[in-house]
Design brief:
42% strand, globular, seven-stranded mixed β-sheet, 566 residues, eleven-stranded parallel barrel, Dex49a from penicillium minioluteum complex, domain 1
């Protein structure tokens, strides 16, 4: 038999190319470096996903023998500029949004990298740009990172502990606010921002005998709850669609080198095997859940409220008991980001049973709210185009970035302390507090005409040690009004007012951009602000808060500021 040498050579070349391709696809996309007790995990690739074309990230530490390691630069952006303007399901156009993406921040982007690190072990970070000549940079919150130095057009800083850090490049956010600065010269101003999400080390080990389902990229998981205890998404790109069900007693792991397009929820499920449908559920890892391939429900014909709740929130768990979302990035949610509603039938209502820890939210759309109806939110990062967080549970050590619309802390529906535990919001940073022009509903702490209508409610809330450091903020810190006559052709809309809230050690570093901006505290005959609101050591641009800083009306009295009653 004669052998065609050319064909053999071609076959060898093809096999070699296939081997190289397969080897690349199976290459280790997360790397763990260890030196004694110092451990650093770096996610260097998300197989099948293009990295940011704006920035690159490298890290190094003693664990890497001080050698630089590439960190995958994830990317999300406001897609309003590339989408057609179409009618809402109501049949009308929305002049402020394009398919609910805020037009105000059209084209804006955020690059982000994920690592996992040990406490008290320094990690140096390098940021370089493909589009910007970096001349200056600053890290926020300032206490979570060293001062940033720029050498050779690259930015460098060090973190000593896990933290959510935003790096402002060339003053894109620190020096400019699109809502207040020269619109004629900068009407098309677009920001490209970057964050490093340094997470604590994730416990990925499972108990012996645990049934694990490994999900390959591009393959729909087998979601029969009897077939697995833990669902582990492999590195790469996954698509699960709307309303992927999560079951009681199950864990779902998304590593930092994976992205999952879709939404997770347990809506419509019933109790099973002695567990409530929202009991003992964990979604964890440093990976990303993206809503970028899901349309906002307002643009889906025939959508009803129950379908909004069930299908469009990135993570929605009802009847929650011992539920934890840990480390996950939620980007471009089609609707709300993380919504964990506790089981109302639990015997001990004073016990916190739903948790969000080290969660990161980056949203671009109206209704792209951050974390709501969750008992305890710790060490999270929330950049939202709508409400950042609802005051329905305690929040600790979180970083907030508010732009376009609404509130940082939305006070609607604060739970009754008779059936709930006291709420403590503490040690949080508001690094940017921005809004579109003339948005009367915006603010850091906001009670608009919402919640239980037409009543002053007694609550138990302590808000302390909050740092607000935006040099270009254009919203009030306190914006409390319990009546709104702007809706429905002037029809009065009543909300609730409160008593039982203490603001303690609130520091606003800079004065508001718009001169004469005042705080708001107005009530009505049905929902007045009669006592029970206390301000202790609140300063704005170095000046102590005074009653004259508020716009008030006749339905406000017995407000306490630094011991004095007004």
């Amino acid at each position: 038999m004669r052998i065609n040498k050319a064909k053999v050579l071609l076959h060898i070349v093809l096999v070699f190319c296939i081997f190289i391709k397969v080897s690349h696809l199976n290459a280790q996309s997360s790397r763990q470096f260890t030196k004694g007790n110092d451990v650093l995990v770096v996610y260097s690739d998300v197989p099948g996903l293009q990295p940011s074309n704006k920035y690159s990230i490298r890290v190094r530490s003693a664990a890497t023998k001080n050698e630089w390691v590439n960190c995958f630069a994830n990317y999300t952006y406001n897609r309003a500029f590339e989408l057609p303007q179409i009618k809402q399901s109501s049949g009308t156009m929305n002049p402020k949004n394009v398919q609910n993406y805020q037009k105000f921040t059209s084209g804006w982007s955020q690059t982000y990298g994920n690592i996992e690190m040990t406490n008290n072990q320094p990690v140096e970070v390098e940021i370089s740009s493909n589009i910007i000549n970096i001349s200056k940079a600053a890290a926020h919150p300032t206490q979570k990172a060293s001062a940033v130095s720029v050498v050779g057009g690259k930015a460098y800083f060090t973190i000593n502990n896990p933290a959510q850090v935003v790096i402002d490049i060339n003053g894109q956010m620190d020096d400019f606010n699109k809502a207040t600065d020269d619109k004629s010269a900068n009407q098309d101003y677009i920001t490209h921002t970057i964050s490093l999400f340094a997470n604590p080390l994730m416990n990925k080990s499972q108990e012996k005998g645990t049934k694990i389902q490994y999900v390959e990229p591009g393959v729909m998981p087998n979601n029969n709850p009897d077939s697995y205890d833990v669902m582990m998404f492999k590195p790469g790109v996954h698509e699960i669609g709307k309303s992927f069900k999560v079951y009681a007693g199950k864990k779902y792991y998304i590593p930092g080198d994976a992205i999952v397009y879709g939404t997770f929820n347990n809506i419509g499920l019933t109790a099973n095997n002695g567990l409530q449908p929202g009991e003992n559920i964990s979604i964890f890892g440093s990976g990303t859940i993206s809503g970028a391939k899901i349309q906002h429900p307002g643009y889906v014909q025939g959508t009803v409220q129950s379908e909004i709740e069930a299908d469009y929130k990135s993570i929605a768990i009802s009847n929650g008991m011992n539920v934890e979302i840990n480390g996950i990035c939620v980007v471009d949610p089609a609707f709300h980001s993380v919504n964990l509603v506790a089981w109302g039938g639990r015997p001990d209502k004073a016990k916190e049973v739903t948790f969000a820890r080290w969660v990161k939210v980056i949203s671009w759309r109206a209704n792209g709210d951050g974390i709501g109806s969750t008992h305890l939110v710790e060490d999270c990062f929330l950049r939202t185009a709508d409400d950042c967080s609802y005051m329905k549970g305690s929040r600790r050590r979180c970083v907030f970035w508010k732009e376009s619309n609404a509130a940082v802390f939305h006070m609607s529906g604060i739970p009754d302390p008779k059936s709930f535990f006291p709420i403590v919001i503490e040690d949080c940073d508001v690094i940017y507090s921005r809004t579109t022009p003339n948005n009367y509903k915006a603010g850091i702490f906001v009670q608009r005409a919402a919640g239980v209508p037409a009543v002053q409610r007694s609550v138990n809330v302590l808000i302390r040690n909050i740092r607000i450091t935006d040099p270009k903020s254009n919203m009030p810190v306190f914006n409390f009004f319990s009546m709104d006559s702007t809706k429905n052709g002037g029809t009065t809309n009543y909300g609730s007012s409160y008593k039982g809230i203490t603001f303690q050690n609130i520091t606003v570093k800079y004065p508001p951009v718009i001169g004469g901006l005042t705080q708001v505290l107005t009530g009505n005959v049905k929902a007045p602000w009669y006592g029970g609101i206390v301000f202790e050591n609140v300063t704005i641009a170095g000046k102590k808060l005074a009653i004259t800083d508020f716009r008030i009306n006749e339905y406000v009295k017995d407000i306490v500021i630094d011991g004095a009653k007004y």
